[in-house]
Queue: 2 jobs
Job 1
Amino acid sequence: MTGRSSLVGARIQRREDPAFLTGSGQYTDDVPLKDVVHVAFFRSSEAHALIPSVSVDAAVATEGVLRVVTAEDLAGVARPLRARCSMPTYNECDQPILAAEKVRYVGEPIAAVVASSRYEAEDAVDEIIAEYVRLDPVLNVDDAMADGAPQVHDDVPGNVFFSLHESAGDVVGAFRAAAHVIELELESQRYCAAALEARVTAATYDHGSAQLTVWASSQVPHLMRFALAQTLGLAESQVRVVSPDVGGGFGAKCCVYPEDVVVAALAMTLGRPVKWVSDRREDLLTTGHGREQRHRIRAAVAEDGRVLGLKAEIFCNNGAYGPWLHTAALDAVQASENIPGLYDIQAYERLVYSVATNKAMMVPYRGVGRVSACFSIERLMDKIARELGLSPFEVRRRNLVKSFPHQTPTHLRLDSGDYFKAIDLLESELRQFPLDGNETESESVFRGVGIACGVEHAAHGPKEMGRAGLEITMAHETAALRVEPDGSVRLAVGTHSHGQGHKTTFAQIAAEELGLAVEDVDVVYGDTAIVPYGMGTWASRSTVYAGGATILAAEDVRNKVLKVAAHMLEADPSDLELVDRKVVVRGSPSSFVTFADVARRACHEPHLLPDDIEPGLHATRLYRAPDPGTFAMAMHGAIVEVDVAIGAVKILRYVVVEDCGRMVNPLIVEGQIQGGIAQGIGGVLLEHLVYDDLGQLVSGTFMDYLLPSFTDMPRVDIIHMESPSPNTVGGFKGMGEGGAINAPATIVAAIGDALASFGSFPTCTPLTPEWIVREVTSAATGSTNHQ
Amino acid sequence: MTTPRESSQQETNITTTVNGEQRSWSVPVRLTLADFLRHELGLTGVHLGCEHGVCGACTVWVDGRPARSCLMLAPQIDGRAVTTIEGIGAPTELHPMQEAFRECHGLQCGYCTPAMVLTAISLLREVPNPSEEEVREYMSGNICRCTGYNFIVDAILRAAAEKGGLG
Amino acid sequence: MKPANFNYKRATDLKDALALLAEFGPRARVLAGGQSLMPMLNLRLAQPEIIVDIAGLTELQGIDHTSDLRVGALVKQRDAELSPTLISVCPLVPRALRYVGHPPIRHQGTLGGSIAHADPSAELPAIMIAMDAEFVIASATNQRIVPATEFFVSAFTTTLRPDELLVQIILPIEKPRQGSAILEISRRSGDFAQAGIVIVLCASSDGALEDVRLVGFALGSTARRLRQVEATLEGTMPDESSVARAREMLDAEVGATDDIHATAGYRRHVLGVIFERALTAARADSMTGRNGRQR
């Protein structure tokens, strides 16, 4: 890579931005569809009920209505979704496209109205009447797993979608040798991605060619294509899915939902374009939720604070269905896998349950199980520190992984990093900020500092994915790089940017390899008819996977460019270099051909090529990231101020030391970190999907589901380290979720430190103002806080 | 079009200037301004995030004032002027605020961005040299789910300090 | 989330608006700034038969300080917030408005709209009660003046009759040595209050509290004067013990309700905290005097 300008690693402005800034982005509802009709859903108002009858006559008669369909109408048309898992302890179940005899969560779709406008469709929905025979709902894990509990599904005995019991290392010995045994119970509430663009699905079916075209705000166009083909009985080649610009996803849009199938089925029967735009109420009700887990952690701790062994019991409130495709096991398994974090702990026993309840389903929301895993291990470290009188930094130093690669007891292998340097940096950054009370104005204000360290297991490798037993092992990506005859470059990938700036970062990668400028490379994704088969963007996989495939494809093209140029210059390919859109003889700047010259020669002048060089200038390469994936690292620190009189929390300072290997674009890396932290702040202080005892979602609009705003977000200082992955092409590590993974533990730790004088040690979220006031008040009275 | 013409829904005539161009239209009375702009006029830079006035993604200017277009009815702009993001800058010639957003990485998925830009320009018209606190306070009615806000604040402060002449 | 069907009538002027209300009053909702009504329409929580749009009534958009201080009901909240007149002679209004939503919302919301909407957690009804403001209410056949203290009946309910419109707000001019403060607790900046307090008071020449008005809001069914608490403070030099007594009385006088964001217990607790803080602020404000007043 010598002699070329370094585009990889440069803070380049995004190519995407001019379109977004001027409102010329095209999101799914912006796609013009001639004579499109609109769908509104009639949804269950009961959490758990039989539905013996649904009366749609009045709806059908409503002005503007074309069709009203229930499960009966779709019976021959669409099969249920089914999240399949080959793990022996997984209990699969069907997810109906429209609920037939039973509803299992408030918001479950029962009927769909098609009308000339969404307005009229909603008028008709108001006319639908369902008869409900209420069943007792189960809303929390304890009730769902109790003997004799109402069963959410006949196929899911005991309401347990999945269980796992695994042990590694000498756990018994560790606990025997322990000087201390420390126990924690931790709990996180249900919250969700709440992307600003809610889900949208539109479809059209051409009878002549038997082609179904679907536009969807999705992170996984090819996977959606597979699901639709399966449920509708089509060949995959009959289905085209186009995900245009997507207004945020955060994992919630990497599943396929019943509404997607309904819209496609309606398009097939009506013979005209059909569109459904989720409103916010539907979105909060039904677009997958995240985070609701309870952990019980026991640690065997040596006298000096080293953790000798761990036991974890993990209970995941999964909601009513396993999401297609990721299943109800994902969150729980991932949480359990990541409990040891970045610490050298070799004895570990985990017991994991993913439980069916009468709430909306859990989907892989940014960070997934790694968020609760980080929360647990980091609170544990702080607890050890407190009990043994160590600093939070010191206790971690005594446990940090020292050398790489490091095999964890859960089949993970930490690849590279310098955790000791990172924690030193973090400590020195935080020490510069004063903590003592003389800065505060009132005696009800307390300051605290908290830290949290974590690794971000990303870009999961094939065996790792295979172990999850999913129907599709999503562990490769393909890049198709084509040089046009005029020298411009088109790069098509199977991932799907929904804010991550792939049009810029992948262009940086390709352009660097080919000696071009970023604006010479046009990156294309999202349309299954145009791009190579791909697994989409989630789990922070894109840079590693698609970036890796891009490097390989670009290398192939580069080699061919050198060969053609060598022929044109009568030189040896090894004497040439690609720089500044030219192929130059090294050391002889006036001897060159332009990149465009080479392209023209290769594409349009094959008669001038030697016999051993084929015409054309393109390459398609596939990349399989090595197992088990990559492990970016981050250490977060926060200083907060808590006004205990009213329970208000202000974050005064937030510092991140992060290492995601080789960065493509540090500006974009920083944006991802900041965005993830904001979501973590939301999860600790504001966001909560509250269900009442009947299973009704009470926080059903943005008036009650509170997203963090400008005034809730602190300034974040980010210090970068770069320990490239020794295993990936490019040395990249996935990093998009790290902000969300570490932030909750960081802020809870800081609040806990601020409240330490009240004897507080929080192990739950959210920490609302009321929680804080009660904590402080009960410290005075000696009673315990409860949620 | 979102609604059929031969319905029993009441319609009304409006004459409005949108991005400098005068238009006359017949609209169903319950059509929101947001839906009118998006679907009747094709101004899809206006985005819907909640339809209850909390997220601010639908912000436009009505007679120069920021307005949540999901909280207005199309009939209400009769005789008034509306500006959407399509009236601000162009991809090859960005408005200084848009440039500042780009320089500072003040957007990721882009969905909240048109509203952020319009609201930010309104801010600088009212408070030409805002403090960071004033920026956050003014902008706090616009939700972003991607950026974590800090780079947006940077963009607005940069636009105030360096770009001037927001007009 | 789209509104259900309704009939739409746009008033051309005040006379026209009142004629429409005379004819359609009980079947109609009045649309002004839309910041409160439109969310309810979109969510279909409100499904009125008729919408009477009064947003274009220019007669109701002025601030007049020729003799007394009269503010048109359709004055935008943002304009009131930035009005030099109000900042100078009735600063509690701009102060309170800073809590109302966010500036872009205040660019559309009107004073009269918020007052007539009578949300129990709203700031404007509370300060109107505290200031003894008066409301000019018009119908096609009549005009009457109602004191703010009699206007708010319960949550979202006022004494406005279906054929009536709030047209003007008569505000008091701030007296010398009068001070005021408003404080509220909310989850995020601009959110609905969970507990709120308004204090208006005068400091006598020797520092004793006079003319104490205390209004609690976001506590229950409607903002109201906390007269017993006022009585404990009236005429006193506020020291630790009188404040403590007042706080005890506050706890006794005030009720609150639960919702998913906070319990009644929390609301009453923080009310006590902000009461003390607001009292300090109001006193400091009363002693600053008009010359030193911060704008």
Note: The radius of gyration of chain A is 27 Å.
Job 2
Amino acid sequence: MSPVTVVVDALLIVGVVVELVCCVGIVVMRTAYDKLHYTGPASIVGPLAFALAIVLREALSQAGIKALLVALLLIVASPVLTHATARAIYIRERDHVEDPHS
Amino acid sequence: MNVWLIAAGALLIGLIPCGIVIVRRPVLEALIALELASVLNTLVLLLLAEGFHRGPFFDLALVLALLSLAGGLVFARLLERWI
Amino acid sequence: MPVAFDDGVVPAARRRVRARLAFGLGLWVALWGVWLLLVDTLVPIELVAGAVAAAIAATVAEAVREGGYVRFSPRLRWLGFVPGLVIGVLRDCGVLTVALWREIRRPGSQRGLLIRLPFAYGDQGGRDSARRALVNMGVTLTPNTYVLDLDPEAGVMVVHQLVPGDLDSIVPKRRTAPTRRTVT
């Protein structure tokens, strides 16, 4: 087993563990505000780990570049979506549409 | 079968808790679970692309990442007041 | 009799045109590069298609910018915050993992807080708009905290933290008055 294969496998394990832990967090945490925190690592650490694994395997070929682009897109989109969702929860709570603490 | 396909399969298991939240919890928590499911699906496509060595799957993942952003923003905006 | 021309206005207009051209051309080249990266080939038809697509996109982007719909003028030195952001992301992943473990062991023990922080909203110019957008993005990027609202009238930023932490790291000290933590 070459060092590159070991690192690739480690990155895949890290990515999968992070994603699955975030899925558990979405179920376990009680309120919408608390659940929303667990989309962050899933959109940042997971994609970065997988993209780096692909780049290590494929170098900066088309596959590697596209994987990095996907990761970059998810990382940039994550705070945008989180803020928009948080704002929706906040406005609905403020306007008494729904109680996020139920 | 290779590590990429195994990783993709493991990520698919993560869709089950997302589905549970979408079905059973209020609409805003469902939106959060939907956003996480979109990320999972994008990553599954990425891993399948590498596992099967199919270039077009990378384009699928890229398009899904873009459309998930747009769709999530539309849902969040509509859920502020109108749904 | 020689006529004196007051061309104080013309150089400014020329500078504006040059700036717009530079922005448009720079964007065109960058987008063309992205196209070529994605198609991974230099066949003539792709070069032409990429050039045309990039020209359309750059034209639309410049028109939107010129119309004032998007005001975004960040400072280069704000890149200095990136290393701290990376550390914050990694640290907060650990914080969230511990919080999840505690919540599993004792359900209901972890509840986040809504916090209002003093925040100088600024005006609608490019610099302040960029500052607000990047502060919002930087704070929300760290998983333990995200921004819900920036209130221009009250001059506050409303954030939610899952595990109460250091608030002064959310907004740089030198830009704010001493922060006051209020739980709602």
Note: Residues 3-81 of chain B form one domain.
